[in-house]
Amino acid sequence: MNANTLLIKAKSQLTTKYPYFGMLASRLKHEESENIESYASNGVRFLYNPDFINSCTIEELSFILTNCVMHHILSHQQRKLKRKGYLWQLATDYAINNLLFKNGMKMPHGVNYDKKFKNMYAEEIYDFLKKELIESGVDAFDDEKVQQNDEQKNNRDNTQKFRKVKKIQENLDERDEEQWEYASALAKEVSTRKSLMPLGFERLAKKVVAQNIDWKFELYNAINRHMRNNYAFMPPNKKHLYRGFALPSLTSDTLSLIVAIDTSGSIREEILGAFIEEFKAIMQNFPAVNIELLIADAKVHAHYSFRGAEDIEFALKGGGGTDYRPVFEYIDANFPMSSMLLYFTDGDGIFPRIPPSYEVLWALSNKKDRIPFGRALVIF
After folding, report:
1. I want to staple 168 with a disulfide (CB 3.0 to 4.6 A). Which of 42, 158, 339, 344 is the partner?
2. Locate the VWA-like domain: which residues (predicted)?
3. 3 state SS of 94
4. Euclidean distance between CA atoms 89 and 275, whole angstroms
């Protein structure tokens, strides 16, 4: 079994046993590299040395992948609070590994784990480690000295194999970070519904300030609510395994989401481009959802059907006035069992007199005083 297959198997096992960890680990794109000794990750890319991966068991690989994604989740949150540095990374590593141990994951020999940190917040572990360093005469705010001290202490038992997470030194753009936030929120909601949320998750970091719930979070929750069936974690969906993704299966039919994009003359080109990017983000975050895309202004110009994030190609046509009624009439004629419509628009148009029976989400380019029905989400 080669290294790539081992990683796919580890992701699949994680998705089955630990859906929260598995759904996030499935987002890691693993890439072979002989320029590194073991592995490195930035939460999106996972570089690995094939010899190192082949030397690991499936349980050890599951641990590595989970540790990587949890570090990314925490580092993204903590950057907002200006927390960084080797000592903070070390404290979060102890907190993460205590969480993994508490949830029954097999701990590789030599990881940063100490039972005295059981049920402690990352902040509390940080304070404990800082006090230890100060008492031993080490400057706790000098990253280089803190790292040297840690390596000297742990070189005594030659257990560096799983000692720390290596990082790819490149910054993720804002869109990557946002998608991770939404993926984490979705994984949490799915795991909570299945009563499989990791034990002790809330004790990782106590001072993470919840951000204002933005439109994407509300949108993704709305889409998730309308899935007819919960995720089934036995067996994982094999469709994306060849790409390194191990996603949960759905037990039967999935949601058919209808998305309409307003291409009328009142929509500026940059706004239209943003609508398209947000549509593509939905496709990527909901690969198991059937999506019917309608291109319309005062009439429906085109209809495209998509499932999954591959080959998202469609042509835009419009530039006329805005009349929402043709879209609703088209849905009534072609999708009588619809449960939800997402309409990207500016909100300036003719609305149907009678609201439809299904849920309508208006993704608006600007705030409107009054939308006659449905839920308005201002996205810009």
Report:
1. 42
2. 257-379
3. helix
4. 37
Q: Which of 260, 272, 267 is nearest to 352 (CA)?
A: 260
Residue 140 CB partners (closer than 8 Å, separation 6+):
87, 129, 130, 133, 134, 146
pLDDT, tens only, 13-27: 888 888 888 888 888
Q: Is 323 left (phi over 0), alpha (psi -120 to 50) or beta?
A: beta
Per-residue buried b or exposed e for 63-80, using 16+ beta carbons within 10 Å of the residue's own CB: bbbbbbbbbbbbbbbbee
- Chain segment 183-210, per-residue pLDDT in tens: 777 777 667 666 667 776 655 554 433 3
Does the bond joining 352 to the residue before it have cis omega, within 30 degrees of 0?
Answer: no
Distances (CA, A) of 31 to 28, 36, 50: 9, 11, 10
Q: Are 67 and 165 in contact (CB under 8 A)?
A: yes
Neighbours of 367 (CB within 10 A): 9
pLDDT tens column, 203-213? 555 443 333 34
Q: Tokens 């706004």 map to which residue?
A: 271
Widest pairwise Cα distance in the chain: 76
